[in-house]
Amino acid sequence: HEPGLLSVAAPACRRCDVPSDTDALHTEAWPDGRAALLPIPQAVADEGPPEFPYAGVNSMLAALHAEQQRRRHARQHEEHRIPDEMAPGCHAAKAMPTGIGPNDGTSFSLADVVQCGHALGGRCLQCAGRRVRDVPLQLYSVFCAAYPAPRSAVASSSSRAPVLPSARPGCSELAFPAFVALAARLEPEPSERFLHLGSGSGRAVIAWGLLMHQSCASGVEASHHQHEVAVACRGRLPEDVQRRVFLHCGNALATQAEWCHASIIFISADVSQGDGLERMAEGLQLLRPGTRVVAISQSLCIDPARAPAGFSLEGTGAYRNAGAPGNSTVYIYRRADPT
């Protein structure tokens, strides 16, 4: 800088050469002798140098960090909260074990929703962006009482979700935490009806009946053995839940005329195998606009990236199996509005 730029006289603005309105500059150094890089107004010079020149900035950063942490905790709580219409509360209390309070909830982990090969704190394309949904512990206790796990399986399992008897091949029933997460992803209304074609032992049907206490759920299963297992499990539920859960034994494709009464339909892979895929496509055309169809383990189109005529592919994802290792890929479709 040229001599005279830091003048003790009333300085001129460096941009426009107009005298400044600030206090007259007193000195180019603090009273204790430390040099100042910029002119020091008289009032500031009288007060002396600040003890902590970054104290204000640090205080502001600390406040921003605290607010960020508060919002992060609030967001995590909201993401784990089950929607109000899926939290029946006292409806499962009749079979509630002693020692469980009405406000206690589950603590499912991401590993309960989707099984991955990495460590618990890791992420991969299979589980990135996935949400865990918790439910009242009373409700989960009722489901576990309906599907008691073999003692040997419980003793050897490290997961909080019970290891249940294996489903028949091609049925691919989902673990309870995985089903809850998938059901929340569908954003159901409180009274929407649920239908599972190829319902196996009825886990999805019974879980829906517990979660949606203003709705009813139906399942159609071709295997007599699996149907009997489902009926036995339904018999362990509270009476008010039993009245809303309907289980049928027969050919699911023969019930096409009834599909339109449900707005959320699950389809197991074995139902659409072989020529069943063509017959399935015919029945889907009878569904009302807005109906969500979830195909488990097998796409409803030869090209998994496409959707059946009159439907849109809303998304795909892996969800953990019940009673068997690994995941099942689900394909979520929505019936389009007529144009």
Proportion of helical residues: 25-40%
Number of strands: 9
Overall average residue pLDDT: 77
Quaternary structure of the protein: single chain
In this structure, how is the largest beta sheet organized?
A: 7 strands, mixed
Tally the helices.
Answer: 10
Give the spatial strand order of the biggest sheet: 5-4-3-6-7-9-8
Low-confidence stretches: 1-28, 87-99, 152-166
Gyration radius, rounded? 32 Å
How big a fraction of the residues is strand? 15-25%
Set down the secondary structure blueprint:
Elements: E1 25-29, E2 35-41, H1 42-47, H2 55-80, H3 110-113, H4 137-146, H5 151-156, H6 176-185, E3 194-197, H7 203-211, E4 217-221, H8 224-234, H9 239-242, E5 245-249, E6 264-267, H10 276-284, E7 292-296, E8 311-320, E9 327-335
Parallel strand pairs: 3-4, 3-6, 4-5, 6-7
Antiparallel strand pairs: 1-2, 7-9, 8-9
Helix pairs in contact: 6-7
Question: Can you describe what's shown?
Answer:
This protein has 339 residues and is of the alpha/beta class. The chain contains 10 helices and 9 strands. The strands form 2 sheets. A 7-stranded mixed sheet has the order 5-4-3-6-7-9-8. Strands 1-2 form a two-stranded antiparallel ribbon. Strand 3, helix 7 and strand 4 (217-221) form a beta-alpha-beta unit. Helix 6 (176-185) crosses helix 7 (203-211). The protein is globular. The N and C termini lie far apart (74 Å). The model is unreliable at 1-28, 87-99 and 152-166 (pLDDT under 50).
